[in-house]
Every structure is written in structure tokens, then in C-alpha cells.
Amino acid sequence: MFAAWGRFVYRRKGLVLVASALTFVFVVAVYFAGLGGELGAGDFSEQTEAGRATKLLEDQLPESPPSFTFVLSSSSLRATDPAFRAAVEETLRPVRNDPSVARVRTAYDAPQPNAELLSRDGMRTLAIVEMKGAFENAADAYPALRDQATSPTLEVLATGGIPLQHDFDEIIEQDLQRAELYSLPLALLMLLLVFGSLVASGLPLGVGVLAVAAGFVGTLLLARVTDVSIYATNIVTMIGLGVAIDYSLFVVSRFREEVQHRPVPEALAQTMATAGRAVVFSGLTVAIGLGGLIFFRLGDLGSMGLAGTIVVALAVLYALTFLPALLALLGPRVNAARVPFLHPERSGTGSGLWRRIARGVMARPWAVLLPVVVLLLFLGSPVLRMRLWGGDYTFLPEHAEGRRGAELRLAQFPGQDTNPVVVVMRFAEGSPLTPEGFEQLRSISARISALPSVTKVESPADAAVVVPPDQLQQFINQPLETVPAPQREVWEGLARSVGARLAVLTAHTPYRSSTDEARDLVHAVRALDPGPGAQILVTGQAAYDIDSIEAVKRDAPVAIGFIVIATYLVLFLLLGSILLPLKAVLMNFLSISASYGALVWIFQDGHLSNVLGFTPNPIETSTPVLMFCILFGRSMDYEVLLLARVKEEWERTGDNTHAVAVSLERTGRLITGAAAIMAVVFFSFATAETVVIKAIGLGMAIAVVLDATVVRALLVPATMRLLGRWNWWAPAPLARLYDRLGFAERSGDVPEPQLPVA
To answer: Number of helices (H) and strands (E), helices first, in the chain?
Structure first.
């Protein structure tokens, strides 16, 4: 089947190249025509309590205007000085006049400055900017608005949800550009070391760029029909560039080997029958791993899985169409433009390093297997203390404006350094402001106030200090214009916190959302009984963290089960064995656990934080999920390439030890080169300034290095030596099914090369 495809591509190479060129024209046209959708952040699942509480607030309470905060500071003037106040007013004048701004609140709106908006050191003040329209509109208007707020005498920093999101978007885009800037030249250098030829080296890089460009546009088109994470572009580049170069590397390397002994049409047919077949099965395993993300109902993880699957499919497509068409056109000229002093082909045959390693390992398999397994388990042991959380402004680099403003606000302004736990009290019947409802509100407020770690509770029941409880319903029903001025702040507070069937209380705690104290508080509030006809739902960052972790625990067994079973079936179709797929799955778990251990040791424990430039924190909740789904498929790349070659040699010779040694010799340099390129791509993302991208890039680079060296060079030969002929065993019914399905490439599909007669 694959050999026939190779012959077809050779005969129709011109048509295939034209079709590939047209797809690239389509990609460019779609991008510049702006036909794609917008990338952003997905909504939190309403299947969680925090998500349901947030949805209730959106449905039953007036929408709060999107807002952000300016922190205005002086090194010489006090915030109460007339000159400081004048500088603040001058700075904010263009902001007040901007049509996207509803109002600006400052410490100077009342005759006496508002102490809550003045810093502890007296040298700073806050200005709260409320904007018109929805959050998305405010976010679009923010950059131009921010540029207007400048001062020759004051330091002006913007913080809050809108500036932080803007900073994340800007820095992620810069991270992507930096990764591409580093990875492409380094990948070309690695390819030159592998091939020793400019032409051969340029082919995988060209396919990689084409696949990533098409994958990026495919992701934008996907965003037209569903929410797609802004991180999806990083996943597309990270995965797409790596797999496209790897697959092209496998194909080009095999073609160069075959074209030395066969005519070009048969060399291409044999290349497709071997490397092309391995690429298809490898692409399936990677797509299966990414497909596992769809099972996680956590934010927009599913969209990242879909985006990754799109670019993997495109990488396989171009590796089986565009690339072989170019090889058919080039023929032996694929080795043109040799680089002086580089002769990698000399290490491809004979009793070289990789064969000596394989034979050394297989001579003492237990002596290698047991220490290596113990080492990988030790490297993975830090995962036992992994903590997860949703993250905050510390995911940004220290120089980011939004982070600097947030740190100043928390450190200098009273009441800003607490973590809010939002409590939604829903009533089955009647308003919360009826006498019965109000009494339940007052009771639950008092019980929450008495909980450990609570410093303050903001509750609609507080309004009883100004308005008698039996008049609250009448009070809130009157128009704001008729409310006496001293009571308007109370009216606005009730309007924001009381709906037709719900009331909102906010419990403040000094502990960060990632701490046990904050999470214990959420559990304690959720355990309270609000009384008959009422229900408590808790949201806020700590509640989101708890629910996110529970969502991962709930969905992980299904996702992992799907990935493992589907990967096992694909490997069975490739190898016809029931033991080798099981071995591959177990080894994947070992290498992934070791990369998890490195993730915890570096990013949670803080080792290398000064070198890599990040703030140690618990691991972001989606990071281990993304890493597992990506790495499980990616690790199979090298397994598929190696085992496909071992099977080829086994069928030719029937000697298991010889087949493993020869296959490792033939593929060892290739796998090392492919892993080095993949590691370069991943390490380039470790230069990112956003901690999430940095952690994923570094964690996956470590996993790839371990997988291509320790696992493939040591564990694979050791286990295959111990299994012997059992490597290829399958029960008779499954063996017959494998033969009947016809996925194995028959030796008769491509004739053996004719040896010259002496």
C-alpha cells in the first residue's frame, strides 16, 4: 500500500507539487484576509460549583463594568500634596475624556481624600477606571487608552484584569517569536550535522515551516466555530515544528539510504513502505495523545488538543506528499551541496557506537534494566509532592507592568492584600431581602466571620446599619435618583450583591489561593448549612483551583484510558505483537514521570529560578495534563521508528539480538538527531517569559532527551533481549487478524536491489 503510494507520487510529482503550492497560497490568503477567528480564554466549565456560581452571578446580577487600576507614585511628593493631586488630575484628564471610559474614581472625589486609595507610605494613590461595554471591548480599547496616561512627574502603572490580560497576550506573542528565532537556525544546524548536505537539511525545515504555517491558519479557522486558547499558537509551533522536522528527517534519511542501491522510483517506493509507514503510525500516536485533551472539561484544553491534532495531521500529509514529490524531483541530487568535513553517512554502517551499545546492553540486560528503572523512578519521585493551582500575576516576568502594579497595590494599599472567597447564597423562593431571607443572610454572615482565616465579610446584611431590615426591599426597589445622597453607596452595594433569588457575600482571607488555609476555608464555607430553602455556592480563585483539580482527577482516568488503549491498538497494527505495545506504554510512563519530577524540582521547589528567571509557585493545573497528552504521543515517535526497523530486520533474519543491534545502529544516529532537534525546539520555548510556556517547554525537552537516550538506548535493547522471540508473539486469532487487515508491508511490494555480477 505505502510502496504503491510512493510510485504514484513519483509518477505525479508535478501535480503533487502544484497541489502543495496551492495549499500554501490558500494559507497565505486566509491569513492576510483575516478570515480566522479570535483566540482567547475559554469559560470555566459550568459542571463545577465555582463555574455554576459565576454563571448565576452573570445571569441574575447587573453586569459590573469592566475596570482596571492605575497606581500613581512619586519619589518626592506625598499623595496629599496639592502638586501630587494636580499631577494626578493632569495624567487622568485624557483618560476621563476618552469615549470608552464611563468614569474614573480617585482618592480626591470627596472633600477629604479616601484613605483606602492612598498608600501606607503616603507616596502613592490608586485611580480606578471603569469602562463602557463588555470586557472584550474594553480590552480592545485599553492599549490606546494606556498610551494616553503619561506623566513627567509621576510613575504610572496599570494593573487589574484588563492590563494583566494585555501583558499576557503581548508577552506570549514575543515568546513565540523568540522561540521561532532560536529554534529554526538551531534546527538547521542539527540537520546539517545529521545529513552533511545543505539540500537534504533544507527539506525537513521547509516541510516544518509549511506545516506550522498551515496549522496556525487551521487554528484560526477553528476559532471561528469554537473558543480556542491563546496558548494554542504556542502548541502549534512547538508540536508542529518538531513533528514535521522529525517525520521529514525519517523520510529523507531512508531515501538517501535507498537511492544508493535502487533506481529513484523504487527507492521512493521503499522509503514510503518503511519510513512513510512509520510516519503514519507515529502521527496516529501523537494525534491520539493530543486527542486525549478533548476529554478534559477544563477551560479550553480541548481546543489546544484540536489545534495540535490539526498541525500533526498536516505534518504527516506534507511528509507523504510534498516531501516525496521533492525527493522524486531531486533523486540522487538530494545529497548535493555537501558541507566540508561532515561525513555522517560513515557512521551508518559497520560495528559503530550504537551497535556496540546495543550488544553491550543485551549481554547483561538485567544489570542495565534494574538500575535504569530505579534511576527513572528516583527522578520522578518529586511528583509525589506536586501542588496545583490556577496561577496569578506572578506567571508574568517581574518587569511586566501589570505585575509591578499588582505587587505595589498588594504591598502598599490597605485592604488590597486579601484573597476574596465569593459566596453565592441562592434562595428557592422569595427575595433574600424578605425578613426570613435577611435573617438567613445575617446568620450565615456571622458563621462565616467566625471561621479561621477570615479577616472580614462583606454582606448585604451590612446594609441594616443604615436601613432597617424590614425596609430593605422597598429601599432597593426605588430608583437611585430618589435615594438620599448619604444612602446611595448602600443602594449601589445592594444592587451589585442582591438579585431576585440570590445574594452575594465576600469573605476575605490573607492567604493566597494556593495555600491549604485558603482551600480549607472554601471547604468550610461549602460545608455550612444555610437553612431551609437556601443553597450555598462558592467561587473565587481558591474555589476555582479546588474545582480545577477535582475536574482533572475526574477526567484523567477516561483520557488516560483512551490514550493508552488507542495507542496500544495502533502499535499492534504496526508490529503485530501484543507485548511490545505494552512495553512501550510502560516505558512512556517512566520517562513522563521523570519529566514531572524535574518540573516539580525546578518550578515548584524553585531550583534554577534565578537562572531561568521565574517565581517559584505550585504547578499550573493544566501543565501536567498538556505535558502528558503531548509527550505520550511524541515519545512513541522514536519507539515507532526503532521498532519498525527492528521488525523489518527480524522478518529478514529471524535473529532477535541481531535485529535489535542492527536497527539501533541504523536508527541510533537518526533518533539522536531527531531528539536533538525536538529538544532544541522545546528548549527554545524554555526561554519564554511566561512561566506556563517555560515550564511546558523545559519539561518536554527533558522528557525527549531521556526518552531518546536512556529509554531507547538502554531500556529497549535490555527488555527486547529478555523477551527474545516473545517480542513478536500474538495469539493465533490476533495474528490472523493482523495478517488479514494487511497493514504490514510485504517484502514483495518492493523488489530487492540487483547486486552487480562479479
So the answer is: 27, 10
CB-hemisphere CA count at 13 Å for 231?
21
| Closest CA relative to residue 671, chosen from 621, 647, 696, 636 | 636
Q: Beta strands of 589-747 (E only): which ranges?
A: 619-620
pLDDT class of 417 with cuts at 50, 70, 90 = confident
β partners of residue 503 = 425, 498
**What is the grid cell recorded at 686?**
524554555
- Give the list of residues 6+ apart from residue 656 with CB closer than 8 angstroms, or none: 650, 720, 721, 724, 725, 727
Are 49 and 539 spatial neighbours (Cβ–Cβ below 8 Å)? yes
Mean pLDDT of the chain: 88
543 φ, ψ to 5°? -65, -40
Tell me the DSSP string of 474-509.
HHHHS-GGGS-GGGHHHHHHHHHHB-SSEEEEEEEE
Q: Are residues 713 and 369 in contact, defined by beta-carbon separation less than 8 angstroms?
A: no
Phi, psi (degrees; rounded to nearest 5) at 538: -115, 135
**Residue 658 in grid coordinates:** 541481531
Query: The dihedral of CA 620, 622, 624, 630: what is its sign?
Result: negative
Residues 232-251 have pLDDT tens digits of 888 898 889 889 988 998 89
DSSP 306-370: HHHHHHHHHHHHHHHTHHHHHHHHHGGGGG-SBPTT--GGGGSSSS-HHHHHHHHHHHSHHHHHH
In 3-state terms the chain splits into helix, strand, coil percentages (rounded to 5) of 70, 10, 25
| Predicted confidence (pLDDT) per residue in 102-141, tens digit | 999 999 998 889 998 999 999 999 999 999 988 888 999 9
Question: What are the C-alpha distances in Å from 492 to residues 60, 425, 478, 614?
Answer: 15, 19, 12, 41
Are 394 and 403 a contacting pair, CB within 8 Å? yes
Q: Where are the domains of the chain?
A: 1-35+196-340, 66-165, 401-539, 553-737
Q: How many CA atoms lie within 13 A of 418 on its CB side?
A: 15
Contact by Cβ (8 Å): 203, 248: yes
- The Cα-based distances of 394 to 107, 455, 741 in angstroms read 27, 24, 53
Domains 1-35+196-340 and 553-737 share a fold: yes
Site of grid cell 506536586? 386
The answer for residues whose C-beta is within 8 angstroms of residue 546's C-beta and 6 or more apart is 50, 519, 522, 523
pLDDT digits (tens, 9 = 90+) for 340-373: 766 565 554 445 677 788 888 989 999 999 999 9
* Span 493-539, pLDDT tens digits: 888 888 888 999 999 999 999 899 999 999 999 999 998 889 999 99
Residue 85 DSSP class? H
Q: Which CATH architecture has domain 66-165?
A: 2-Layer Sandwich (3.30)
Predicted TM-score of the model (pTM): 0.85
Write the CATH number of the domain with boundaries 553-737.
1.20.1640.10
CB under 8 A, 24+ apart: contacts of 481-486: none
The string of pLDDT tens digits covering residues 323-337 is: 999 999 999 998 887
Instruction: Report the range of poorest mean pLDDT among 71-80, 293-302, 309-318.
Output: 293-302
Q: Which amino acid is at 485?
A: A
DSSP for residue 712: I
Q: Write down the CATH superfamily of domain 1-35+196-340.
A: Multidrug efflux transporter AcrB transmembrane domain (1.20.1640.10)
Rounded to whole angstroms, the Cα distance separating 604 from 609 reads 10
Buried b (16+ CB within 10 A) or exposed e, 280-304: bbbbbbbbbbbbbbbbbbbbbbbbb
- Exposed / middle / buried, residue 1 (Cβ in 10 Å: 0-12, 13-18, 19+): middle
Sheet containing 456-458, strands listed edge to edge, beginning at the edge strand earlier in sequence: 456-458, 502-509, 419-427, 534-539
